[in-house]
UniProtKB/TrEMBL annotation, chain A:
Name of this chain's protein: Membrane protein
Keyword Translocase: no
Domain of life: Bacteria
Lineage of origin: Bacteria, Bacillati, Actinomycetota, Actinomycetes, Streptosporangiales
Short name of one Pfam family: ArsP_1
Region (Disordered): 1-39
TrEMBL record, chain B:
Annotated region described as Disordered, given as residue ranges: 115-139, 206-230
TM region(s), chain numbering: 35-56, 90-109
Pfam families hit by this protein: DUF1980_C (PF21537)
Protein's UniProt name: DUF1980 domain-containing protein
Organism: Streptomonospora alba
Lineage: Bacteria, Bacillati, Actinomycetota, Actinomycetes, Streptosporangiales
Length: 357, 250
């Protein structure tokens, strides 16, 4: 323990530490200082200037740099990155808006009426709800966050998060179109995804702890106008999820361009390894679930079970999604939830693949 | 990240999405044409949200108020680096797509990707194809490469044999042997899932990579099983350079 001066501040400050401890119980100073928590006006002005310069730099870059970037690999990477970002953007914005609407306009009593109280009973209901509502994985993460905030059991909300992108009608139709003449693939995808989502939900209901999830932020001021709650909720979710979505897109674009398909094809003949490789491929590639069936069908060298793994794992676990979940629910959640989901998805892939394909 | 920065980032992001859909056709390089209305709607929401946030901040500055910490936007989370204004630092990454759209403006994928991406797979069962061309007409049949290879895999009656067909695509070198490919990319949703449709041409000298050509010629039916074919061969009668290349995806 440092010695605390008991009298008034000593005349000579030997070091910073001394000066700090000296002022520690100095009653003469106003604490907190008068400008504490004030808007930092000059800082906000600086922000505006900084963005003005940034916009000028954008215009300059547009005029001078655009034509000089010629590296094929870099441009292919940039195209894929832009493609993933732009494709996910509407889903993210609509998902965040829906989540904000759930938080601000739908009364909490509605959820208590619709969702069963018992978490074990709520899980299959949530899974079935995922079958009805079309939504992409980027949208389902903020929506699940909104449901948890409204008091829906986390296990049920997480089941919805897993089921909605995997087995919604748009995805099932896309799968049927891609695998024309193989209706068993659609059935297998539906069964394996639903099974994995419900299993994860039940395991979470049994073992999950609330403090693994980042606590929902402080309750809203009940007097605030609804549209203001809506605005703040949307801003908050976009800022938290959006950056991570971009991070995921960066990673996925890099893998997409750097890893040659020939490496993936090289292992197609090995029965179990090929399934694991396509599962891993789905994780790193982070393709939107509405499109992944078309990519799966092009991986002709692989067995149907390996393709099923690609379809079941992809919508539930991928780089973009992991980053998004980390941003929304926190990393101590991701550490537990992602391995559990991956394991459940693989078990159901092998079981349903063996049974149906 | 303070609130005014958050607002400006959202407006810029919306402007990026809006300018690539409304003012140019840049978005066609990245996503399906069907995404246009969704991108515009999302961009409009982003701009509206960002503008109201900036306006609210500007009002409080003009009034010289101490802004009340907005509902729910409490002191920063752990990753926000201690700044009590809500948004984590990772949110700055939202500027990267803006940079990508405005500064890099990446072109559509081309032969670099066509050499590495997966190739289309044979359809599982015979697809019902229409009769080729107008009955009685003599001219060449215009066809997408996608349709051509799909027919070539399933045309057990060899009804396509001897017909003059016109294909349009870009040149891709064949690293593993003779000839070169005339190729188009097919995307289901966005450029990340692009797969290649291509025909092999061996009777013409290889043009420069990524140049666009309209080829008229005939299908060279393979010997033996149609479905075991990897590269569909096309023998060229006329080859004409395309001046204004279309959307590379079909």
């Amino acid at each position: 323990m440092p010695e605390r001066p008991t009298g008034p501040a000593p005349p000579v400050h030997a070091s910073l530490g001394d000066s700090l401890t000296a002022r520690w119980d100095d009653p003469g100073d106003d604490l907190p200082p008068p400008d504490w928590g004030r808007p930092r006006g000059p800082r906000r002005l600086a922000t505006v200037w900084m963005f003005a310069l940034f916009t000028l730099a954008l215009a300059a870059g547009n005029a001078w740099l655009s034509d000089r970037l010629t590296s094929e690999a870099f441009l292919a990477w940039a195209t894929v990155f832009t493609a993933i970002s732009l494709q996910a953007l509407p889903f993210l914005v609509f998902g965040v808006a829906l989540s904000a609407a759930l938080t601000s306009f739908v009364p909490a009593s509605f959820y208590r009426r619709v969702v069963p109280d018992n978490a074990y009973a709520a899980v299959p209901t949530a899974g079935a709800a995922g079958m009805v509502l079309p939504g992409c994985e980027c949208a389902s993460v903020p929506v699940a966050g909104g449901l948890i905030k409204r008091g829906v059991a986390p296990a049920a909300a997480l089941t919805f998060l897993l089921a909605a992108p995997a087995i919604n009608p748009v995805v099932l139709v896309a799968t049927a179109v891609a695998f024309a003449g193989q209706p068993e693939m659609v059935l297998a995808r539906l069964a394996a995804s639903f099974g994995a989502a419900v299993t994860v939900g039940w395991v979470w209901a049994r073992l999950g702890r609330t403090d693994w999830l980042r606590p929902p932020r402080a309750h809203h001021d009940p007097d605030a106008p609804r549209w203001q709650i809506f605005r703040e909720s949307m801003l908050h979710d976009l800022m938290h999820a959006g950056g991570f979505l971009v991070l995921g897109a960066l990673a996925a674009a890099t893998v997409n361009v750097v890893v040659p398909r020939a490496w993936v094809a090289a292992v197609a003949d090995m029965p179990v390894v090929s399934v694991l490789v396509l599962a891993l491929f789905a994780v790193v590639l982070s393709i939107c679930s509405e499109a992944d069936a078309f990519v799966a069908v092009s991986l002709t060298e692989f067995s149907p079970t390996a393709k099923l793994a690609f379809l079941v794992v992809g919508p539930m676990v991928d780089l973009k999604l992991i980053a998004l979940q980390g941003g929304t629910f926190g990393w101590s959640f991701v550490r537990r939830f992602v391995p559990l989901t991956l394991a459940a998805a693989l078990v159901f892939t092998f079981a349903i693949g063996g049974l149906l394909l | 990240m303070n609130r005014i920065a958050q607002g400006i980032v959202l407006v810029l992001l919306g402007a990026g999405a809006l300018s690539s859909t409304v003012f140019t056709d840049l978005y066609l390089n990245y996503v399906q044409a069907g995404f246009r209305p969704f991108l515009i709607a999302a961009a409009a929401m982003l701009i509206a949200l960002g503008a109201t946030v900036i306006a609210a901040e500007a009002r409080s500055v003009l009034r010289g108020e101490v802004p009340v910490e907005p509902a729910g936007c409490g002191p920063g989370h752990a990753e926000s680096g201690g700044h009590g204004h809500g948004a984590p630092r990772v949110a700055w990454l939202l500027l990267l797509p803006v940079l990508a759209v405005f500064v890099v403006a990446p072109p559509a994928l081309g032969s670099y990707t066509a050499e590495n991406a997966s190739t289309a797979a044979p359809p599982r069962e015979e697809e019902a194809h229409d009769e080729l061309g107008e009955p009685g007409s003599e001219g060449p049949v215009e066809m997408e490469i996608q349709e051509f290879i799909s027919r070539a895999w399933t045309d057990e009656k060899r009804s396509m044999e001897g017909k003059t067909i016109r294909l349009t695509g870009f040149a891709v070198p064949n690293p593993e042997g003779e000839g070169w490919y005339l190729a188009r990319l097919q995307m289901a949703c966005c450029a990340a899932d692009a797969i290649v449709n291509r025909v092999l041409i061996t009777d013409r000298p290889e043009p420069p990579e990524d140049s666009w050509w309209r080829a008229e010629g005939t299908w060279q039916p393979p010997e033996g099983d149609l479905r075991s074919v990897r590269d569909h061969r096309f023998s060229v009668e006329t080859l004409e350079e395309v001046e204004d290349p279309p959307d590379p995806y079909e």
